[in-house]
Amino acid sequence: MEKRNIKLSKSSIGREEINAVEDVLKNEYLGMGSYVKKFEDDVKSYLGTDKEVVCVNTGTAALHLAVEALPFDDFEILVPSITYVASYSAIVAGGAIPISCEVDSINLFIDLDDAKNRITSKTKAIMAVHYAGDATKMKEVYDFAVKYSLRVIEDAAHSFGSFQLNGRLVGYEGDIICFSFDGIKNITCGEGGAIVSSDLNITNYVKNARLLGVENDTDMRYSGKRSWDFDVVKSGYRYHMSNIMAAIGIAQLKKIDSIREKKKILASAYINAFVRSKNVQLLDLNYSNSLLHIFVIKVLNRDKLKIFLEENGISCGIHYKPNHLLTAYNSEINSLPQSVEIYNQILSIPFHLDLNDLDQQYIIKKISEFYDEH
Ligand SMILES: *Cc1c(COP(=O)(O)O)cnc(C)c1O
Fold first, then answer.
1. Among 118, 196, 197, 260, which has the highest number of CB atoms less than 10 A from its own CB?
2. CB distance 88 to ligand 1 below 6 Å
């Protein structure tokens, strides 16, 4: 039998996205313009929020500008060690110091008991990551933030379309919420990101900063114009979203219900297969509220299993290597044994919209075969 080649993740693009991009190309206005405004309006109405939605070119840029917009100097941000390295890069780029915190071993959410012990007089914010897409633990984070007078940045890169415990979508409420629309996230713009907040100090900052700091250029761009006589008070970046990206996002957002249904079916198949397994543990996530970005299992013999699956044409991932183990983010106060232990057990298995049932059954079969042999 021919060797399979099952991807861990992939973009899922249909006629709708291709047509939308073709429209933009034919209009010959490719940069930031009316499509970006429309995508921002569409996201806002989808979330049902009265907050502002400001789009940028990556989720990392969203996090970076969120940090930079905070009104503090020389400050620290609590962040789980197990997150995409983008969270850390964004904190440093934004002028703050990332303080690595442990994650809870059952769900890989930031461990607030550990975080509490890492608070200093410089701690001004907490960046909570909705790991795998579960956004149901934010009440605890906001209670914690009130108690210790912290701002909250939600790294919601995994959780676009997920519900909180009160049934509201992520982004409906909260302090500063950052989404990613990169190629493999819940919905994509090719690349892209958004900042959602009702703090106008934050959103106005981001609107200028994404366009090189050129004041009030955002409204000009929406109407296909640009400023010629302008001021820059604070230097900025080329972080705006383009019409091409926004057109993809508009088409993707229309499909969010079918994306959710497909992900539910995929997750249920894995849950049914592993819920009573001795060798494979599921994370203790709120699966019914979450639009999952990745499917993570905790296993014994992780590295050997990963090699075995890859030899059988099944690509796997590890989300993520703890950031406090990286040279740039290491420091002696960063001893996090719990996170290192969990890191050695987690494995992400294929989870994308084009994964078919036969391939999924094959993955499940190969995992149990591995444990039969070991
Ligand atoms: C993807 C991701 C980001 C960054 O988003 P990009 O759009 O890829 O820049 C940040 N944090 C987490 C947890 C992510 O998974």
1. 196
2. no
Query: How close is the Cα of 130 to the center of ligand 1, in Å?
Result: 11
Decide whether any atom of ligand 1 lies within 6 Å of the 36 Cβ: no
Taking only the tens place, the pLDDT of each residue in 233-268 is: 999 999 999 999 999 999 999 999 999 999 999 999
99: left (phi over 0), alpha (psi -120 to 50) or beta: beta
pLDDT tens for 44-86 read 999 999 999 999 999 999 999 999 999 999 999 999 999 999 9
Helix, strand, or coil here: 296?
strand
d(CA 44, CA 53): 6
The answer to whether the CB of 274 is under 6 A from ligand 1 is no
Question: Is residue 102 lining ligand 1, measured as CB closer than 6 Å?
Answer: no
SS3 91: helix
Q: How far apart are CA 351 and CA 314, in angstroms?
A: 11
Residue 190 Cβ < 6 Å to ligand 1: no
CA of 370 to the centre of ligand 1 (A): 32
Count other C-beta atoms under 10 Å from residue 351's C-beta: 23
